[in-house]
From TrEMBL:
Family indicated by similarity: Belongs to the class-I aminoacyl-tRNA synthetase family.
EC annotation from Swiss-Prot or TrEMBL: 6.1.1.16
Catalytic reaction equation(s): tRNA(Cys) + L-cysteine + ATP = L-cysteinyl-tRNA(Cys) + AMP + diphosphate
One annotated GO molecular function: cysteine-tRNA ligase activity
Oligomeric and partner information: Monomer.
Xref: PANTHER family: CYSTEINE--TRNA LIGASE, CYTOPLASMIC, CYSTEINYL-TRNA SYNTHETASE
Motif 'HIGH' region per UniProt: ranges: 44-54
Subcellular location: Cytoplasm
Protein name: Cysteine--tRNA ligase
Gene3D superfamilies with a match to the protein in the record: Cysteine-tRNA ligase, C-terminal anti-codon recognition domain, HUPs
Encoding gene (name): cysS
Amino acid sequence: MPGDPARPTSSSTLTLRLHDSATGQVRPLALRQAGEVSMYVCGPTVYDVPHLGHGRFTLVFDVLRRYLRFVGLRVRYVSNVTDVDDKILERARQEGCPATEVAARYEAVWWEAMAQLAVERPDEVPHATAWVPQMVALVEELVAKGAAYEAPDGVYLDVSRVPDYGLLALQPLASLRAGARVAGGEAKRHPFDFALWKKVPGTQDQVSWPSPFGPGRPGWHTECVVMSLGLLGEGFDLHGGGQDLRFPHHENERAQAVALGRAFARHWVHNGFVEVEGQKMSKSLGNFTSLPDLLAQADPRAYRLLVLRSHYRRPLEVTPATVGDAESGLARLDALARRFPEAVAAGAQVDRASEAIRAGVPAAALEGFCRAMDEDLDTPGALAGIFELVRQAHQAADAGQENEALGLARAVGCLAGALGLALGDHALGPGRTEPDEEAKALLAARDEARQARRFEEADRLRDELAARGWTVEDSPEGSRLRPR
RNA sequence: GGCGGCGUGGCCGAGUGGUUCAGGCAGGGGCCUGCAAAGCCCUUCACCCGGGUUCGAUUCCCGGCGCCGCCUCCA
């Protein structure tokens, strides 16, 4: 096919450039193995309901994952669930129930929210509690190498043994130290030494595992090292998470791998915060909106659109107003899907760029999309292109250029789909799907009345439909119904 | 104190050394429509301040002001 864009459809040459937190530069994502991407994204600690920040990072990495697959790569996506942690234990204590119950409950809430957001389930979801023996082995190895030491209350990594500690913080250990505060009660040597293993006194009723250092539980920074290396192997391609994980969490993961002499993530990707009134949304600030709350109030796709509309590294303002904006924008996309249902659906079936042209997606549309996405995941640019296609499709149809309109509509379905956005009324969610028989009958009766120029009757029927929750749209292609 | 980032039109949010300065939402006008809805066309509104570099800066440099984040559990 002429104009077939070989570049974005090749599976062996990836042209994606991504910002790497370790260098501060946007640089090509250089894969360990051509055609395959291994990515690890730090998942939730399941001690409470997820908030909008969790929603953002999962959407960002879901989009990255989908795009990598779209351009022809095999993606292995691993994201953990931290199911043992001080916060979970604290919650269990408050509620007087087992920690495992707390973790199970909030993990269920998590997956329900993910399903609503249409975030695809990771290929692997390692749980910290299932990897404790491996973590113990890792701690032992670090101690044996002299990079970690045992103290009365636990085992700590000696950050002074990690030459480039501070890489992800973009400053050397010495300058970090200036602002460091030592947590009280911890028997560590250096303020930045961190717990690999927390000893649990045997008499206390707490969750613990046996170890050569006595009963205890793993430190948070250890699980991701063990699980990422265990599932993806050394030198895996990409490690991601929210900006706040950059330091100290990711720094400390890296430090362990460096101390062990094992190659770790080749590329570090961090997304920006969700903000409210210009301030970071976080549990500790108490200004968070829970993800389930948002999803109950708005079309879940609106949040995806809102997230896509800004660049992933920038802060994102989430308010009822911005969510409402996104819903209006979504309505514009859905309107196209209503006008060209088959074409948009056909486009959405295409899940590889390499198949898009054959499926009737204009090459220029595909190229523009990939050009934007390849430049550090420019989803705002990609989205702008999609909205442009929407306009062109309507234009072409209004001008009677049917084939051109259908091609553009297919492109919209395909590219929105590549971003994880399903379009059309069927995507609106429960209770807002297809018109029932009665509604269809009313619409037919109205068509008849209009045909006969009995406009009073037609308007009465339209009111009737409105009362049942349907808005009537007339078009050259005929009349149709839209949920209000 | 150290480090990083940001300040764009009514709102959200991209981007660029200069000519048509993305896109969405909202506003105004028009077309279409029996009337609407949807759509199309046109349109209002812009680059924090002060210097500098330049033929020319919103875009580069310096200074200022303001805001935010990390350095502590945090997506």
